[in-house]
Design a protein that fits this description.
Length: 785
């Protein structure tokens, strides 16, 4: 059509009213007209409008006649095309109906064929899975024989997964499933054993001069202190192919542990393996003891001594006897081995924790370093119980008031199931409340003994146990470790009594010999720090007795923090025994006369005379050589003493029977005085000997009071001897100076006064000579005799 399409009128222009509106208005007007005249007017108006519209229509038809013809032609062609397509559609519908009929005939056949094909495919797949499951056991065995635990774990895990999911309905595979489960448990045991061997039985060099235990530990620490981030990155790449590509030279501690842990993760046995590994800690430590003991026995003492001299691992300390040297070397080597195992165990825990995080498992089931060191302390307690012949290993628990709790996770009874027949032994000590008997406390011979058991071997192993306890305590919480508590309780309950008995026996042996209080000699140079140049002659038996005291004191010093304060009781007991013997010797060596005690002895029983003599400056000069006293004070003291003694003895009443005529008895008493002074000085030097590096930082107050009391006892004996010699010398002077014969009785009084005046005039010089020499003449006389 040539007419343009309608356009939207511009805004503000009103649209013209349509004619239809006009028509409707007319119709309403006609219907509303009331008269015929009005209706006629309206009809005329309508006719006029109709003619106008008819004319307009004719004009439009005339104007668009060509377009109308074209539209009619096109409409005719469309109608004819639609008729043809309708016929085609009818033909297609007829053909589709025929196809549907044919498909209905073949549908059942196709469905049956498809079901048969699916059944055949499923059967083939199931047979393949069954073959894989059956063959997996052999593949696992071959992988294990080649050392590829990760490959074996993958094969076994895939077989178990197939048997439990895809083939779960196949009842004929029940026996195979059981075999695979058994194989899985065996594989887990193999992996756990492999981890234990990596931690506890690493390649160890022999105990020779070439590679020492300290050097091995340093190399191990350098190997294990690698970056943890690098290990975690490697952990993500552990695959069976990586395991197969490793050669023997490439296998290290970390690769072995990572592959083993990855195998446990594949088998979903990480938590169960953690418990198994923790249970076997003590068993593996006992195997370490067995291995080290056998190496020490096989290699002998010659190589051990050479290594000690080179590396200084086992110092030749006091208390290590020749019979206890192998045990000292064993404990020292075990300390190094346990520290090395602790380093490997710490690295194992880091890798194990990373593996648990990789498989999204909590690490609460993982054992800690405290578990390891607790097991170390328990096996060392078992070792000490064996070598020291201790009756019970539960001393630490008995100290707390109860028996030791059972530890089923450690399974000690399993390890000692191969023990030899028990043999009877003398028990060293008994607890007040004996613990319940346990099979693990019986005689154990699972590992060979490097020496004969003896309680005295404790002091051979203490130098190695002290640093080990110091290493354990910060790891286990900072308090006293159970090993130190065990040794402390043993020292308190048994070793203290043994040391005291040994010291008393040694002192009794040297004191009870025939004529021991007649043998004199120089003070031993190594027995104490109290002996000096002023002690020149002592009784030899007292030197031997002091050696016994020194042995007990040094043993207590070696105990140190492990019951050293309790071991000091043995030193106190030795001092008490020595004091008892010295008291008895003083009673025997005190001179006497046929008529009874000499006059000097009788005067010493008077406390007033003793106090007077001890208050004089010359007594201070005799007992305290370092005291500074002027010559005038000494002269006045001598004159005062001469006056008092002259007033008592000036009558000449001292007879020969009241003095000691045997010079050897006085010499023995002088040597006893010197010996007691030497012992007192040594006793006061005990704190310095017990202190110092490696000794007591602070001695107990009770022990200090005990040694102070012991020193006072020996001082008392020394002072009694010195007072007796002091008085005896002066009494003898009065006796010999007063022996002038007076021919007439009237001259007796004058002679007595003259003798007293002469004694007073000569007394200061004689007393000064005697006091300054501190009975030197008696010592020299005794030495000559």
């Amino acid at each position: 059509m040539s007419s343009p399409p309608p356009t939207k009128p511009p805004r503000g222009v009103k649209q013209g009213k349509e004619t239809s509106g006009l028509l409707m208005s007319v119709i309403r007007t006609l219907s509303a007209s009331e008269t015929n005249e009005q209706r006629e007017k309206e009809r005329a108006k309508l006719e006029k409008e109709y003619k106008k519209s008819d004319a307009r229509l004719d004009e439009l038809v005339a104007a668009h006649a060509q377009e109308i013809m074209e539209v009619m032609q096109k409409f005719s062609s469309v109608v004819s095309a639609l008729s043809v397509w309708g016929q085609h559609c009818d033909a297609v519908v007829a053909r589709l109906g025929a196809c549907r009929g044919l498909l209905r005939l073949r549908r059942d056949d196709l469905r049956r064929l498809w079901a048969d094909a699916r059944t055949h495919h499923y059967a083939l797949q199931m047979l393949t899975d069954i073959e894989r499951v059956v063959v997996s056991e052999r593949s696992t065995r071959e992988s294990l024989s080649a050392g590829r635990v990760l490959g074996a774990a993958h094969t076994l895990s895939a077989a178990l997964d197939t048997a439990n999911t895809t083939l779960s309905h196949v009842t004929a595979l029940n026996a195979t499933r059981q075999h695979l489960q058994l194989k899985k448990r065996e594989l887990v045991d193999v992996i756990v054993r492999r981890l234990s061997e990596a931690v506890y039985r690493d390649e160890r060099a022999p105990l020779t001069r070439r590679v020492s235990a300290r050097r091995r530990t340093a190399l191990l620490l350098a190997e294990l202190t690698k970056s943890e981030e690098v290990t975690d990155a490697y952990l993500q790449e552990v695959t069976p192919e990586f395991e197969a590509s490793l050669s023997e030279e490439d296998k290290t501690f970390e690769t072995t542990v990572m592959i083993s842990l990855e195998a446990l993760g594949v088998l979903e046995q990480l938590k169960e393996a953690t418990e198994k590994f923790r249970v076997q800690i003590q068993h593996e430590l006992l195997e370490v003891i067995d291995s080290v003991s056998r190496r020490i026995i096989e290699e002998g003492e010659v190589e051990a001594d050479a290594e000690c001299e080179e590396d200084g691992e086992i110092p030749d300390s006091e208390g290590v006897t020749e019979s206890g040297r192998p045990l000292a070397r064993l404990v020292t080597s075990l300390g190094e081995e346990f520290r090395a195992c602790a380093s490997r165990n710490k690295r194992l825990l880091q890798l194990w924790r990373a593996t648990l995080q990789k498989y999204r498992l909590p690490d609460s089931c993982l054992h800690t370093e405290q578990h390891y060191w607790s097991a170390v302390q328990q096996v060392l307690q078992l070792l000490l119980t064996e070598y020291l012949e201790i009756e019970s290993v539960t001393l630490a628990a008995a100290r707390a008031g109860g028996a030791a709790p059972d530890a089923p996770d450690l399974r000690l009874a399993d390890y000692f199931a191969r023990k030899r027949p028990q043999r009877r032994r003398n028990k060293l000590f008994k607890l007040a409340g004996p613990p319940a008997p346990s099979p693990s406390l019986a005689r154990r011979q699972a590992y060979p003994l490097v020496c004969r058991p003896d309680p005295a071997h404790l002091h051979a192993v203490l130098p190695a146990l002290h640093p080990l306890c110091a290493h354990i305590e910060p790891v286990t919480g900072g308090g006293e470790c159970s090993l130190r508590a065990f040794i402390t309780d043993y020292v308190r309950s048994g070793e203290c009594e043994r040391l005291a008995a040994a010291a008393r026996a040694a002192i009794d042996l040297v004191m009870r010999g025939p004529g021991v209080w007649r043998e004199r000699g120089s003070p031993p140079a190594a027995c104490g720090k109290g002996s000096g140049p002023r002690h020149r002659v002592i009784f030899s038996c007292c030197g031997g007795g002091w050696r016994g005291v020194c042995v007990a004191a040094r043993a207590a010093r070696r105990c140190g923090a492990c019951g050293g304060a309790d071991a000091l009781r043995a030193t106190s007991a030795a001092l008490a025994t020595l004091a008892t013997h010295c008291r008895a010797a003083h009673n025997r060596l005190t001179p006497s006369t046929p008529q009874g005690p000499p006059r000097a002895q009788r005067w010493l029983s008077d406390d007033d005379i003793v106090r007077f003599l001890q208050s004089l400056p010359n007594w201070t000069a005799a007992t305290q050589p370092d005291a500074k006293i002027s010559a005038d004070d000494l002269k006045q003291a001598y004159e005062r003493e001469a006056e008092i003694l002259g007033s008592s003895l000036g009558d000449g009443a001292v007879t020969r029977k009241e003095i000691v005529s045997d010079i050897n008895a006085l010499a023995d008493l002088a040597v006893l005085c010197e010996t007691m002074d030497w012992l007192s000085a040594n006793i006061r030097g005990l704190p310095s000997m017990l202190g110092g590096p490696g000794g007591f930082s602070k001695l107990p107050d009770k022990f200090l009071n005990d040694i102070s009391s012991a020193a006072m006892i020996f001082d008392e004996i020394s002072h009694k001897c010195l007072l007796f010699l002091h008085l005896e010398m002066r009494i003898e002077c009065f006796h010999y100076l007063g022996q002038e014969e007076v021919p007439a009785a009237e001259a007796g009084a004058r002679g007595a006064r003259r003798g007293a005046r002469g004694a007073r005039r000569s007394w200061p010089t004689r007393c000064s000579l005697s006091t300054n020499t501190r009975t030197t003449s008696w010592r020299r006389t005794g030495s000559r005799t």
